[in-house]
Amino acid sequence: MSGIPESYLKYTRRKVAIIGLLAVLAGVLAVYAINAGSADLSPTQVLMTLLGKDEGRFRIIVWNIRLPRVLAALVAGAGLSVAGCVIQNILRNPLASPFTLGISQGAAFGAAVAIIVLGAGSTHSTSADAVIINNPYLVTFSAFMWAMAATLVVLFLAKYRGVSPEAMVLAGVALGSLFSAGTIVLQYFASDVQVAALVFWTFGDVGRASWRELEIMAAVIAAATVYFLLNRWNYNALDGGEETAKGLGVEVEKVRLTGMFVASLVTAVVVSFLGIIGFICLVGPHMMRRLIGGDHRFLIPGSGVMGGLLLLASDTFGRTIIAPVVLPVGAITSFMGAPLFLYLLSRGYGKR
Length: 352
Prior knowledge:
Blueprint: H1 6-35, H2 43-50, H3 57-90, H4 103-117, E1 124-125, E2 131-132, H5 136-160, H6 165-188, H7 192-202, H8 211-230, H9 232-238, H10 242-247, H11 252-274, H12 280-292, H13 296-320, H14 329-346
Antiparallel strand pairs: 1-2
Helix pairs in contact: 1-3, 1-13, 2-3, 3-8, 3-11, 3-12, 3-13, 4-5, 4-6, 4-7, 4-11, 5-6, 5-11, 8-11, 12-13
């Protein structure tokens, strides 16, 4: 311990302290989010329910509605933010994210195919006038498959055509435009009910996640995060440029392709279950980079904590600002992320 410089210890302690503080803040917000809503619960009622000492309506509200929603926001936000952190590193573009690779547009097109072409859009309305998709698993599966199809096209161009990171981003933008055009064409021939179902799906909503879906998302995101952490030194080397990384023994192409695939897989899983939730994968990594720097030993877990905090805050705001009306979390995150995106453009990021 005496051989480690004190300055380095302060360097690491500061980063760990910031990440820990954000984690505590996320925990406090999670408790508030479980309490808040159209049916206000006291902290005591929530605690008694979580301990299994309340079998009434509070149990249904907490265990079936609010707790899965809160955990889904934390897990999905963490996954999207970590995926964005890695994509920005391996493409060496601070404006890059899994969504710039056409993944969200591919998922939306897949949902359109399921709802309009495959018949999952025979919907009905509840007494609250909410559109219910009769076959959500078909929609989820189709959205996931088309999201991964977009990923595989970009990976094919990278591996077999040798395109540059900049060209990969452009390919993703082109794919996104193609999928968006396909979605518009399908909507043109769809019925009013089918269009309403598709629009309902595209509204990102963490409340859709059941315990089963939450388990799947958590397993995929946890495994992906472990993989990213195992490659943390490779990502740090890539920050110095491809030639520097190769000189340090990093297999740049392998790291880039596998990192893109795993990050895209995380995004595809989240989007297929919850709908389109934009800008978390862009905002989270940038905010953490401002706070703790670009060392991926800390940036990867820090981005996960920040992403979960941001998505939970956005969802809680959308649920409580004009309760009992619930605003779509995808709209809230876009309102938050778009100004940052414009700020980055004004700073000239991403230019070569």
